[in-house]
Amino acid sequence: YMGWSKFYEFAYGDFKAGASVIDSIVEQMENSPTVPWRTLYGLLENAIYGGRIDNDSDIRVLRAYIEKFFNDETLAGRGKLGGFITVPQTKSYKEYLVLVNKMRDQDTPAVFGLPLNIDRAVQRYNTKLVVESLKTLMSVNVEDVKFDKEKWAGLLGPVIRLWKTLQTQIGEQGGLPQIRKQQLDSEDPIEAFIYAEALNAFINLEKIQAAVEGLNGVLFGTGLLTSEIQSDAMSLLTGNIPSRWSAIWDGPLNPSGWLKGFARRTLGLKRWIEKVKTNTLMTEELALSELFNPDVFLNALRQKTSRKLKVPIDGMKIAVGFESGKLQSPFVVKVRGLLLQGCGFESGRLVDPPQDLSLIHISEPTRQAEISYAVFCLKKKTLPVSYPHLRAH
């Protein structure tokens, strides 16, 4: 549980190479009062450990670990290694040996600066692997399955019935709203995004409907089994998402979860359009999980705020809180359904979690009747007054 996005095969050889680099640097700095940390950082990050990493996020994790453990504060005994180990200010081998013997056989999450409940992430990952293995054992073997109308109808019938139910829910309350070109060309970036997002969802809705109707016609009617329908059926029979669907939206990996997620977002976009038409979008609580592309919504908000404040987009920062009155910005967004990971929430502040806290849990504000949302906005960046030398640049 070190925060990597995937498993890396770091070995004893990497450790030995790193120790050899440190020995060489120490030998070269016998007459120097300072440690060439940047040289050490570069060698550890780029030559030894970083060579195995192929993910930008993991490179940042590696860099954070290197800078956390190798610095003047830790070496001088003013900072604690891993949060609880003080480096002895002596050259005595015995003192270091005593310190090593006091260490636990198994590292705690705190050593790596991680929350105490990170163990649950490992458990969750291992559980996911077991579930995937069970699904593989239970799924139909494509090579052994040839078209059998009765057998396919029994296996795929639940998926077809689920979609019909979801489609009925989407079509209720006046059906799908019509989106005109002038709405797509709105000068308001947020409105233009919402209309474009909804239009794309409605178009994809028709594609999914056509695919399910084709499958339904083959299994329960007199439709012809085309290559596209057969490909969709084979994917669904093995518990996977048809390639035509996954190209629409990168959602859950199981068919029922994917269809429910698509329908929930399409219904949510109908509500977002109503809020735009009634000018209540920025005053009501919003669930970003109702969007297919929430990151594009945030970019639209950046653009709108940038125009209002008359500052460049990269000259703003995001501000987050749980009391809207404390955020000063032209546009403040209220977000409901907030989930917190790796932390707790007490008295309006984020805190380190206890060990038994669920890995992903609904935050306290969304459980309180008087505070059911978090808020965020974009503000103009201000230069820290403690770094006057930056002003010259």
Helix content: 40-55%
Low-confidence sequence ranges? 361-372, 383-393
Count of distinct strands = 10
Mean pLDDT, rounded to whole units?
A: 81
User: Kindly, what is the distance between the CA atoms of the first and last residues, rounded to a whole number of angstroms?
Assistant: 40 Å
* SS-based class: alpha+beta
How many H/I helical runs?
13
N-to-C SSE string, H for helix and E for strand: HHHHEEHHHHHHHHEHEEEEEEE
Q: Choose one word for the global shape.
A: extended
- Main β-sheet, in a few words? 4 strands, mixed
User: What portion of residues belong to β-strands?
Assistant: 5-15%
Biggest sheet strand order reads: 3-5-10-4
The Rg value, from CA coordinates, equals 28 Å
What is the topological layout?
Elements lengths: L11 H17 L8 H12 L7 H14 L2 H4 L4 E2 L3 E2 L6 H10 L16 H20 L10 H23 L9 H4 L4 H32 L6 H11 L5 H4 L8 H23 L7 E2 L7 H16 L6 E6 L10 E4 L3 E3 L2 E3 L2 E3 L8 E3 L11 E7 L13
Parallel strand pairs: 3-5
Antiparallel strand pairs: 1-2, 4-10, 5-10, 6-9, 7-8
Helix pairs in contact: 1-2, 7-9, 7-12, 9-12, 9-13
